[in-house]
Fold this protein.
Amino acid sequence: MSIHPSAVVATGAVVPASCTVGPFCTIGPEVALGEDCTLVSHVVLDGHTRIGARNTIHPFTSIGIPPQDLKYKGEPTRLEIGDGNDIRECVTISRGTVEGGGLTRVGSGNLLMAYSHIAHDCQVGSHCILANAATLAGHVHIEDYACVGAFCPVHQFCTVGAYAFIGGGTIVTQDVLPFSLTSAKRENRAFGINKVGLRRRGFSPERLRTLEKAFRYLLAAKLNTTQAVEKIKQLEGEDAALIAAFVERSKRGVIK
């Protein structure tokens, strides 16, 4: 086991021998790390926190810290993180609150860039990117393969759909459509599908054509949202069904 002499590992913490704990890290008594994790230096791990295998955590991150919620009174809430995440400098991830179900969860294969923040009770999927200083308020849901741009605040209880790309500096106060390219030019708008990102993920031309047709119904046709959803339901494929279901279950409304 490689633990730097200046690191502080509390009794009760689970740190496998395959992990590397760098200088000036502190690991609390209720933290459990998976195999082959690397804590570069000055990392704080606290609370009822479970971290999977092969995660790299960079300097000055604070993970499993108490939520920034005045209603929190020290309850034993939790944080769970999956495998293979790259968590960069000064990232903060809070554990959950009783009111929000008591659990903050981050999936696998994510890139959390410097100064990004994941607040209490957020649910972040897998293969997502949070760019520098992206900020998730409490109870935010980020679906798989979504990308939140730099300096984007996301309002409480919002959902960012799968494969969505949010441009830097966009203030998100409503749900972001899956597969969309959404940005703030003069006002928040969805500009169509995230075509470049979807191609990189291996989407076929046929899938892209279906998505483009679905987005024309939502964004360009002279249809209200209910009428557009009914048209989308008539399209073939799981992608169209996913968009229709996303819009129908949205509680804050979607950015169009």
Q: What stands out?
A: The CA atoms of residues 15 and 162 lie 33 Å apart. The domain at 2-142 is CATH 2.160.10.10 (UDP N-Acetylglucosamine Acyltransferase; domain 1). The chain has two domains: 2-142, 198-249.
